[in-house]
Amino acid sequence: MPADWRDFVALAKPRVMSLVVFTGLAGLVAAPDSIHPLLGFVAVLCIALAAGAAGALNQWWEADTDALMKRTANRPLPSGRMEPGAALAFGVSVGTGSVLLMGLAVNWLSAAILAVSILYYVFVYTIWLKPRTPQNIVIGGAAGAFPPLIGWAAVTGDITALPVLLFALIFLWTPPHFWSLALFINSDYAKAGIPMLPVVAGRRTTRRQVFIYSLPMAASAVAPWLLGLTGPVYGATAVALTGAFLLLAARVAMSHETEPAKMAAERQMFAFSVLYLFILFGALMADRMLLS
User: What are the transmembrane regions (predicted)?
Assistant: First the structure.
């Protein structure tokens, strides 16, 4: 029986894609120049397609380990609803198409960064880092940090300080975000043989690292405002939200809970970290619209 269209949607990791698309849109809106609405739509569409392609290739490669984890066992490939060849063809064709469309319709700098983001996620993070080192999330965090650069480059054709700072923000946000999740699904990763930090170094070290990485992330979050690259809406939002982020990270660092079901601090940190980026990048776009 052929895979249902909903299986292809699941293959693209729509929840992850939504944050990728939103931060890419924010980079596009925050850029100082203007872009034709149709080209802007194409650029955002290409970012979404590339994210979906990367998600599909990630699931194609990790089908065996996904089958071992409760959180991922019902995905299209480990559940048997989709053949591996279909997932591979989907990922390669959609990824290649997104890069070519971006280059031909928008510009080749944004297309090049888009291509790098796909290749980095698939080859550097998924294939090389994730199964080999507990630093997989640290180094691999760059994969999800490219969208603001892509959105900005789609409008301006160059890269300046603000998109680089936004890249740094997402790069440094990724370890606290994913390690908070890993703390309460630690047994899943251990069962699948994935060397996430809680599996290799233990929960105490991981909780400390969540807080440690939150500090440079906080600096990168407020830096655009302190350097005069954004306005007061972003500045006030960054200060308030980042303060809350640090408080939650401190709660995680001080937690000694060992039962996943009772890890309230870790669950709150994970949930808030997603909301944090959405609101912060929303404030970035609001600033640009108010100043234009």
Answer: 12-32, 38-61, 108-128, 149-172, 210-227, 233-250, 270-291
Write out pLDDT tens, residues 62-98: 999 999 888 889 999 999 899 999 999 999 999 999 9
203 and 120 part of one domain: no
Instruction: Looking at the structure, tell me whether residues 151 and 241 fall in a common domain.
Output: no
CATH number, domain with residue 10: 1.10.357.140
Domain region containing 138: 1-157
Interatomic CA distance for residues 109 and 35, integer angstroms: 15
152, 16: one domain? yes
Task: Look at the pTM and tell me if it is higher than 0.90.
Answer: yes
For helices 232-254 and 203-226, give the axis angle rounded to 10 degrees.
170
* Residue 133 and residue 2 share a domain: yes
> Among 70, 171, 244, which Cα is nearest to 252's?
244
In contact, 3 and 83? CB cutoff 8 Å = yes
- From CA 36, how far away is CA 28, in angstroms rounded? 11
SS3 83: coil
